[in-house]
Amino acid sequence: MLTLLFDGIAYGMLLFILAVGLSVTMGLMNFINLAHGAFAMVGGYITVVLMQRWDIPFLWCLPLAFGGAALLGVLLERGLYRSMYRKPHLDQVLFSIGLAFMAVATVDYFMGSQQQIMQLPEWLRGRTELWDGALGMGHYRLFIIAVCTALTIALQYVLTRTRFGSRLRASVDDSRAAAGLGIPVNQVFALTFAVGSGLAGLGGALGAEVLGLDPTFPLKFMVYFLIVVAVGGTSSITGPLLAALLLGVADVAGKYYVPKLGAFIVYALMIAILIWRPQGLFVRKGAK
Amino acid sequence: MMDARTQLLSPTHWRWYESLLWVGVFALPALLPSHSLIINEIAIVALFAVSLDLVLGYTGIVTLGHAAFLGAGAYSAALFAKFMHPDPLLGLLVGILAATLLGALCSVTILRGSDLTRLMVTLGVALLLLELANKLDWLTGGSDGLQGVVIGPLLGRFEFDLYGQTAAWYSLSVLLLLLGLARRWVHSPWGATLMAVRDNPLRAAAIGISVTSRLAVVYTLAAAVAGAAGALLAQTTGFASLDVFALERSADAVLMLVIGGVGWLYGGVLGAVVFKLMHDIISNITPQYWTFWMGLFLVMLMLVGRERLSPAHWLKKAKGEQA
């Protein structure tokens, strides 16, 4: 029971790190980006390749995965995404799903369609049992929770305490008024997009072992990221965090107790929540 | 100078070149018997794209889960043929009915919320049904698909043969019939209110159009048409598999619609023809990486602006320059 909760939380934290960039870009530019999972996949593949071919230690791979995905994010934002902001949602959806298709086929071409296996370092492989096995914690999952918690606290700090954070929040709330006040909304957005993609890459690197990594990753998990954003709302990062935790626990518990129903529970839950609260569960009244 | 009445009514009229076009289309399976299967396939996806146009083009609902209704039609028609009665027309009716019911049920889910919410809910319904069809393997055959569906002869006389001539004519007839019906719908005063709702729901409500009921009804109608496409698919292939619910189905239909132009019923048909031919050619060259080229095509198209591709755009432009 506790073990399930623990696994669910680890899974949820991972989903949060993967999806938080998507939530911010959607809130900031009202852009529906279905290719977000591609950045996560890039991070995952960077890690796998570095570890397998060049024997770079796992911990060094994580910042590299972050950097690689962030770099790709900046390039794509500058080159392609920027011209799509003012287009209707249908165009954005098609554009980003096209990007996701391209990413899937490209990775398939270079890396093959098989599932990638990640060799975790020795110190992350064990498992600790507490209270006579009532709570079993895999060390790797503990590590994921620790990293993700640290990142969440850092993000929250940046958003609420720094100048950049207040600019970002101002741009999310009303980008036109923010631009009128002299905030360089475009630069704020480019930086945010890069960090968001980088976090997705980091999440992909961390999650390669838990979620599995193969070329269909962006399409397979696209729905999960979107659920996090749609249910959590886009006005804060606590909303997506709670939504991700809820999703993680519901998914793990659902697959354990009623394996026959599989992902059924998650989808049904999402539809029910969105019918009940179409703007997301955790949205302030009066937010746009 | 046309007066307003004739101008408003003009798009509903059946033109002589349309009749000519359809005579040509119906002659195709006889002229090219070896291509009957692909003609049949195109007719079915065209019907599916037309039904999506009702939702996306005329009402502006962004959906990635339209395959839910295609799948509902396909599975119910296939199950009906397998367990109840092999007659294709009865099966078609059953497929339409099942999809209509599902559409009416799901129309509740698209009434509120932003584009993202609708996207998620429609996608969620399709995924839910996919899971359901996968897990109820005693009924649907699970991931192996529903096999052993035998369809009786059409009207008790025309057998479905291996070359698919009967199938092609059958699908084309249903396409023509439903396309004509859909045309009646969208050019009626009721259809005009749909476009008002699409362009500005607030104003539409202010002049007394009931927005929620319009959305619900058009969603249900579109579901019915998609159900017909699904039933045709199941009947002419004698098979129903999980991929009818897949995201790719919905995404392909949106792509076809975008190629042919949204908000113009023939757009779905035209898009289906172009898409299927393109698919055939590219996957002959690189069967595995077809998705890459499709993705590239989508990205380029969106960057250039999709309205430039649609003939409706050029027609309008040409007319505008004349006036």
Helical element count of chain B?
Answer: 15
In total, the number of domains of chain A comes to 1
Task: Give the SSE order of chain B as H and E letters.
Answer: HHHHHHHHHHHHHHH
As a percent range, the share of helical residues of chain A equals: over 70%
Order of helices and strands of chain A: HHHHEEHHHHHHH
Q: Residue share in helices of chain B?
A: over 70%
Uncertain spans of chain B, ≥5 residues at pLDDT below 50? none
Number of strands of chain A: 2
Task: Give the averaged pLDDT of chain A, no decimals.
Answer: 79
Question: Unreliable segments of chain A (pLDDT under 50, ≥5 consecutive)?
Answer: none
Q: Determine Rg of chain B (CA atoms, Å).
A: 20 Å
Describe, in plain words, how this protein is organized in 3D.
Chain A has 288 residues and is mainly α. Chain A has eleven helices and two strands; from the N terminus they run ααααββααααααα. In chain A, a hairpin with a 4-residue loop joins β1 (127-130) and β2. In chain A, 49% of the residues are buried. The model of chain A has no long low-confidence stretch (mean pLDDT 79). Chain B has a domain at 25-247. Helix content of chain B is 73%, strand content 0%. Chain B contains 15 helices and no strands. The mean pLDDT of chain B is 81.
